[in-house]
Design goal:
Structural class: alpha/beta
CATH topology of the largest domain: Rossmann fold
Strand content: 15-25%
Number of helices: 10
Distance between the termini: 44 Å
Helix content: 25-40%
Order of helices and strands: HHHEHEEHEHHEHEHEHEEEEEEEE
């Protein structure tokens, strides 16, 4: 299995994942990644075998099987036998079984989130990064904390940093930086951002406010429109940005406002029939969200999430709910 991995990498440099520029390139590489993971990922291979899906029969990405995300709670989902460099885990509630993502190449994750951010926001050096992620900082294994910590380091601004319970200090820092005209990226979990605007009403001119979803029992669940309306009013901004990512993947999508997400070239979002998980549907119909993340080559690139959403013709999508209360980071709208 190890030899197969190294042969694959030599044939297709992983840099190709992040340099695609056409739909044909994506489709070709996705089919090759599927073949590789079918041959090297025992869990995914067993799943495909149950569906009688073999690479020789799969000619387009819509025919690729999507592994239910729940498998990350009960199995080691790996396509490489290289040493595990880090293990990311979902937050979960007390006593619940959490998802575990065994990462054998952290450089792929770093490359993915850095390039993904640059596509939508430019160079991280341009921002002071303030992170309000208390529930993620309170535990180990958060892929979100790993990403944001790297952003803070690379922002090269001494003001950048994490905030846990010191909300008053964050309030003063935010007002000071914004009034100085510095570009600020405030990344926060939903309930903590709500806590902040209850403490103080802002009138920010140079700050991007990005929510990463998640109430996790800390507050009543609310739909995106309600959440964003409160946050826009509280921060004095015209838009609330959002990040869509999850423990089981290595890439993120971003919304620059209005809950409409865009993804980088190495990702795709499809929807499946809510009543028939093996049937994909056309755009504009509400269904279960399936994600293709080619950066996730050493695990599984084809994941059936428990989010509900809608894909639009212009390669954007929105999240409108989820099937149940599963532990998925990045769901920006709770059950309706």
């Amino acid at each position: 299995m190890g030899n197969a991995f190294f042969i694959f990498v030599s044939m297709i440099n992983t840099n190709a994942i992040f340099s695609m520029s056409s739909e044909d390139e994506f489709n070709t590489l996705a089919l090759e990644v599927f073949k590789f993971q079918f041959e090297n990922n025992p869990v995914y291979r067993s799943f495909c075998d149950l569906l009688y899906k073999h690479p020789s029969d799969v000619k387009q990405i819509e025919e690729i099987p999507f592994l239910p995300i729940q498998f990350f709670k009960s199995h080691h989902v790996l396509s490489s036998n290289a040493p595990i460099e880090d293990t990311f885990s979902s937050s979960g509630t007390t006593g619940s079984i959490t998802s575990k993502h065994y990462v054998t190449d952290l450089s792929l994750y770093k490359k993915s989130f850095k390039k993904g951010f640059e596509i939508f926001y430019g160079n991280i050096n341009d921002y002071v990064v303030l992170a309000l992620l208390p529930n993620y900082l309170e535990r180990k294994g958060s892929s979100l904390v790993y990403m944001v910590n790297d952003m803070i380091k690379n922002s090269q601004h001494p003001e950048s940093g994490f905030y846990l319970d010191n909300i008053t200090e964050l309030k003063e820092k935010l007002i000071s930086l914004d009034s100085e005209g510095k570009k600020v990226m405030l990344i926060g979990v939903s309930f903590a951002l709500l806590d902040l605007v209850e403490l103080h009403q802002f009138n920010l001119k140079n700050t991007i406010v990005m929510e990463t979803g998640g109430m996790k029992g800390r507050r009543k669940e609310m739909v995106r429109e309600e959440l964003h309306s409160i946050l826009k009013s509280g921060f004095g901004v015209s838009k609330i940005h959002s990040e869509y990512g999850m423990t089981e993947l290595l890439s993120q999508a971003y919304s620059l406002g209005n809950g409409i997400f865009r993804y980088p070239n190495w990702m795709r979002i499809l929807t499946r029939d809510p009543e028939d998980a093996l049937t994909l549907q056309k755009t504009k119909k509400t269904g279960g969200i399936n994600v293709i993340d080619l950066a996730n080559i050493n695990s599984c690139s084809f994941i059936a999430t428990q989010d509900l959403g809608r894909v639009h013709d212009n390669s954007t999508f929105e999240i409108i709910g989820r099937f149940d209360s599963s532990d998925i980071r990045g769901c920006n709208l709770m059950v309706l």
